[in-house]
């Protein structure tokens, strides 16, 4: 008598059989789209966050023809492949097929590989690819979040340098109409100088994140005070310094 298997978070269960989660299953195509949005090929409605994406991929539907080297060469077109191995006793394995777990060098490489290889023919079979963030370690997860925050900061900084972000604010909050000063107590309407959120690197994602938010005046006890009416809340570069909580950097007790 076979007992139905469910994913368990114990290391013993992982050693016996690899975990399987609902997001490993293929999502059906959306059939309720309006005619003007419905293409020739039916697509599913999917949305991924940074927590859903991962450098680990699960490839299902690979024919059992010893195609590990061929599959690795195919994945190298999108980036370096750190590791690839077969998942034995995977719950959703079809007959005469194998399931592989692949670790790409970065989330971007994994994203491109999933985009261009998902639901493609491979030696007579159809490959289905899904993200597998459950294989990430704590350090890999922190690096992934740190890189995402760094890319967002670079994007905002380039947008600020190009001048496109200045159109979102009234004239009284422009750089040319205000004086930048190091003393926040001398003027009421000031702004902080533009700064890339990840300019200081402590080689640790958590420490860099704490330092970034501490520079904006936030800590575990106090929160950023809301801006007055009529002032934008979308960018920290134009936040008046009078509304920020300036911490005492001489007494570095943050996070202790």
Key terms for this structure?
single chain, 256 residues, alpha+beta, Alpha-Beta Plaits, 2 domains, 5-stranded antiparallel β-sheet, globular, Nucleotide-bd_a/b_plait_sf
The coarse silhouette is: globular
Report strand order across the widest sheet: 2-3-1-5-4
CATH H level of the largest domain: which superfamily? RRM (RNA recognition motif) domain
Q: How large is the count of helical segments?
A: 5
Kindly report the oligomeric state of this protein. single chain
| Class from helix and strand fractions | alpha+beta
Q: Helix and strand string, N-terminal first?
A: HEHEEHEEHH
- Strand fraction equals 5-15%
Q: How many strands in all?
A: 5
Q: Approximately how much helix is present in the residues?
A: 10-25%
For this structure, what is the CATH class of the largest domain?
Alpha Beta
Average pLDDT figure = 72
Q: C-alpha Rg, in Å?
A: 25 Å
Q: Please give the CATH architecture of the largest domain.
A: 2-Layer Sandwich
Write down the domain tally.
2
Name the poorly predicted regions.
1-16, 169-182, 192-199, 220-242
CATH fold-level label of the largest domain: Alpha-Beta Plaits
Distance between the termini: 55 Å
Largest β sheet strand count, sense and barrel closure: 5 strands, antiparallel
GO molecular function: nucleic acid binding
Protein name: RNA-binding protein 48
Give the topology, please.
Elements: H1 11-16, E1 56-63, H2 68-75, E2 81-86, E3 97-104, H3 107-117, E4 120-122, E5 125-131, H4 138-162, H5 205-215
Antiparallel strand pairs: 1-3, 1-5, 2-3, 4-5
Helix pairs in contact: 4-5
